[in-house]
Amino acid sequence: LFFYIPSFFSQKYPPVKFLSEKDRKRILITGGAGFVGSHLTDKLMMDGHEVTVVDNFFTGRKRNVEHWIGHENFELINHDVVEPLYIEVDQIYHLASPASPPNYMYNPIKTLKTNTIGTLNMLGLAKRVGARLLLASTSEVYGDPEVHPQNEEYWGHVNPIGPRACYDEGKRVAETMCYAYMKQEGVEVRVARIFNTFGSRMHMNDGRVVSNFILQALQGEPLTVYGTGSQTRAFQYVSDLVNGLVLLMNSNISSPVNLGNPEEHTILEFARLIKSLVVSQSQIQFLSEAQDDPQRRRPDIRKARMMLGWEPVVPLEEGLNKTIQYFSRELEHQANNQYIPKPKAARMKKGRPRHN
Ligand SMILES: NC(=O)c1ccc[n+]([C@@H]2O[C@H](COP(=O)([O-])OP(=O)(O)OC[C@H]3O[C@@H](n4cnc5c(N)ncnc54)[C@H](O)[C@@H]3O)[C@@H](O)[C@H]2O)c1
To answer: Do the strands 232-233 and 265-266 form a parallel or antiparallel pair, or are they unpaired?
Structure first.
């Protein structure tokens, strides 16, 4: 029998390079349906590798990687890294972990389990199959730093029992585990200490400066600045981070490397720039200073520059424009897909009333 499948049934994928068997790697990305992980998936797929995404969809979404579903080089597994995983891979990018304060504080015990048991499971897998593992660590390992900017030699200033400890200490012990597996078992590890990152597919409602301002500007609401707005922040665009992660994975640097953008801007500068890029009529509204709002956060990226030849290249305005476009499409998508529940007719129970 001959079946004709019209072309509109066959899915179109973004173009991927062809790699020979020798150069093509089998790559696992845990947390690959999240913000950073999905961009990393795009890069590695387009570079021609075989990518397996493992995600429990706590903060990630199928929508972030749906454009690859069905591709012969791609696999999506709904799995929690707290449970062991047995697959054959050459490289593991271990990103699974909630990343923003509201998400990681939502269930601190689960955050701890993901970063500890989850990391042990992935290191166990790396040991078993001889894979190299890159841990997505964070600038939060430096805690409330007493040194500016922070370089990789700084040990940090973390409160082990504070509200952020489940994440900060979780990532710190995850780093410790990497080096224990390296020393004791010879597992090849890479540790990226990631600083603030923004871009499309970032979470819209987790209270970060960039997402807050973009949403407020797009919706014509006032842009809320806490204090005078003279506090500074530094953000890297997600494609810069992804390039850094891939360079680090394929380098021979096993010690931790900072990946971030050292270019600082005041909060007020961000507010004004976003307002003008959105061409928004929103006002800037000053509110009283937030508690524990750090005055400065800035990475020292000399090591990445020197040893990886890496530095951020995407100009802030360009990154913001792409993110603004994404947010406005998302707002449209939400407006068109609002689920409005229909009122249910009251149901009469038959028989005797039951105690549930
Ligand atoms: N975005 C940043 O600015 C930033 C800064 C520093 C570090 N990082 C690190 O980078 C990584 C990715 O962050 P992101 O911003 O993409 O966050 P994200 O929340 O978008 O992605 C995390 C992904 O991990 C998944 N996940 C969480 N717990 C899991 C579990 N137990 N099992 C399987 N999957 C699980 C989530 O569903 C999500 O898809 C995280 O490890 C984070 O700590 C991010």
So the answer is: antiparallel
For the stretch 306-310, contacts whose Cβ atoms lie closer than 8 Å and that sit 24 or more positions apart, written own/partner, are 307/251, 307/253, 307/257, 308/244, 308/247, 308/248, 308/251, 308/253, 308/257, 309/247, 310/243, 310/244, 310/247, 310/248, 310/259
Q: Is the CB of 55 under 6 A from ligand 1?
A: yes
Query: Atom 30 in ligand 1: which residue has the minimum CA distance?
Result: 80
Nearest CA to ligand 1 atom 23: 31
Residue 288 Cα to ligand 1 middle (Å)? 31
Q: What is the pLDDT of residue 342?
A: 58
Residue 145, classed as helix, strand or coil, is coil
One-character DSSP codes across 76-122: EEE--TTS------SEEEE--S--SHHHHHHSHHHHHHHHHHHHHHH
| pLDDT tens-place string over residues 197-239 | 999 999 998 888 999 999 999 999 999 999 999 988 999 999 9
Answer whether 196 contacts ligand 1 (Cβ < 6 A). yes
Name which residue sits closest to atom 1 of ligand 1, judged by CA: 197
pLDDT, one tens digit per residue, over 292-302 is 666 677 899 99
Ligand 1 mutation target, pool 59, 76, 204, most atoms within 8 A of CB: 59
